[in-house]
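Thanks for the sequence, V.! I ran DinB family protein right away. Repeating your input here for the record:
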Amino acid sequence: MPPNPSPLPEVWLRGPLPAVPPLLQPVAHALLQAREELAEHLATFPAAKLAARPLGLASVGFHLRHLTGVLDRTFTYARGEALGPAQLAYLAAEEQPPTHPGAVQELLQAFSQQVEAALAQLIATPEASLPEWRGVGRAQLPSTVLGLLTHAAEHTMRHVGQVLVTARVVSGEQ
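Predicted structure:
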């Protein structure tokens, strides 16, 4: 349990988000919930432990970098765009998290900024475009705008769960 649990209900129970299309509300709610939980649970996580891999599990730092990167990539595909060199370089570096003082806050801030970019894209996404085909990756595997946006939300929440458990193990919490 976090030291100061939020007195607010989960994001999805706070009502609709202004300007987000109704069919995309669950995506926006999940991303905002992820951002809140990470900030709350990792506020005091030591940067020196960002690269720790208990039992060979992915590190907290990897998850934090991956969360930012996967949102960027899936939302890029949802726009019908290919990944650029900077995105591919970021993907290649996800497994080497920084561990310098302040790194946790930097990683949380980067994720928060990516959530803001995702929210802006959700607001600008016409519901009529949701069933449109989108190719994913170099192989152009088939998806849709809605499929990519939904995957971004569920993938984010899956990694949030993993990072929170790993952070507890690394911190020695009971």
